[in-house]
Design goal:
The complex is a heterodimer of chains A (91) and B (483). Chain A is mainly alpha-helical and 91 residues long. Chain A has helices at residues 4-13, 21-35, 73-79, and strands spanning 67-68, 71-72. The chains are: A mainly alpha (91), B alpha/beta (483). At the A-B interface, helix 1, helix 2 and helix 3 of A face helix 9, helix 10, helix 11, helix 12 and helix 13 of B.
Chain lengths: 91, 483
Amino acid sequence: MVDRKEIEHLGDLVKVELHDMEKYITQVDQILNYFDNLDKVEYDSDATLRKEISYEDLREDKHEPFLTDGTPLINKLKRDQNNFIRAPKMI
Amino acid sequence: MNLGISATEYLSLIRNGEISAEEFIASTLDRVHAVEGKVHAYITMDEQNALNKARSIDKKIKAKERTGLFLGMPISIKDNICTSGIRTTCASKVLENFVSPYDATVVSKLKYEDAIIIGKVNLDEFAMGSTTEFSYFGPSRNPWNPEYVPGGSSGGSGVSVSALECMISLGSDTGGSVRSPASFCSVVGLKPTYGLVSRYGLVSYAHSIEQIGPVARKVQDVAFVLNTIAGHDPHDDTTVEKGAVDYVEDLDAGIKGKKIGLVQQMTEDGVDKEVSAATNSAISKLQDLGAECIPISLDSIVHSVAAYYTIASAEASSNLERYDNLRYGFDLGTEGYEFKAYVSKVRSNFGPEVIRRMLLGAFVLSAGYYGKYYLKAQKVRAMMKSQIDEAFKKVDFLIAPTMPILPFKIGEKINNPLTLYLLDINTIMANLTGIPAISVPFAISNMGLPIGIQIFANSFQEKSLLQASYALQQTTRLPEVPL
């Protein structure tokens, strides 16, 4: 059973200001009750799906400037009037 | 002009000089203007660029210069796939004005082959939903009856193709998001094997299970698009190098001698009678073509919805962490806010389904519950994969209805998220196990609503999957969309 306090805490964790709290309490509770069906799973194996990628298959670890239309993206954003590269001032 | 032609027919008309790319694009745009008010497939149109591009392709054809394979075909792109120069909103207020500085790999490939992007199409916000009702820009409507949902989350893709507002569309499929609208709108939709198509430039929702997939009116058009978009991409390390496969070649190879497994758990409880009858009819037609059909039981499916929504919510809550209005965002002054309060305020602009999944994701990943939910869900995934591997030792394909029920009215189920989640039961297996699956339009109900049949194949068996789908498509003749 999920209560108001728990939903408030979750909202705090994911940093969302919650409106219509009662609706979220009811719906999240209903969905989590359904998820509880996972308790009935009978599967002895410890296996989970994993895909191994060998080191040789990974791309080389070197810096490559991200180019758009031949220009490094960072330069382009610096010129953009609405750029979001610099974070706004806060208290 | 007949806008309902297939890609193959289009290419032949263009090559013979019977139509020009500009004429076809202009007619398609006229069609969009005529029907958009009824169906609302598009979020953003790019009309002038589309016409300019068409003119330049016509010039290249006349001058006998190199032209791309698509010769100016009009396509729409789901609005969670990045397009340089056209905004990518994810149907969210939070990204309402976001213009990506780069193209997704699939978009670059299509542009290189002279496909013309005429616009970006609607979806449930961040692809979270199965009806397209959770779009910040309002719901899309089913062209077969605008009072009904078109399926989702790639509803705009299904609608735009079905309503002849483009020839082909790209959607993304996390739990059935390409196949559900394909089924509800009577078009073909493919979810490729995980790793066949690059996800670079697809805005992440649940990255371990989602794939970009084509939507078209005919199986041969889906095969044609797959030829261009499939393949390894150095920008996406989850893509696999499998060598070039021609999915169009031998598409009519037939299904004689193939074994098909009817998935029992997808055809019994809660399946609409007309959907059930259509499935039986599809099976009997495939048997007439020489296929053998046997029942297959995959009992892990009963846990699949809980496992899927646990994993999808967990990944969604992580992926949505980046939306703090600093790197992406809309106009909201920061004065008077402390950091956390500012971000919380910004994120309150997410729609209700996105917020629900963030809360669920945070819950199932939290220290006390990780083993109970997330780890268990991953075990279900492994269990499903092992059952699927066993099944494909016995059969070549699996078959089931794409959606267990017929399309329903807009607003009918929106207040009960769990009811909506349960409708995904037939599609999510392919996402959790990574295998390819396709929805083929097969019948129209007594009420005039479409029914799609779903076929699954083993990983990277798209070629034989498309051959089987083509065989099924050829057994039925469906009416024109009544729009």
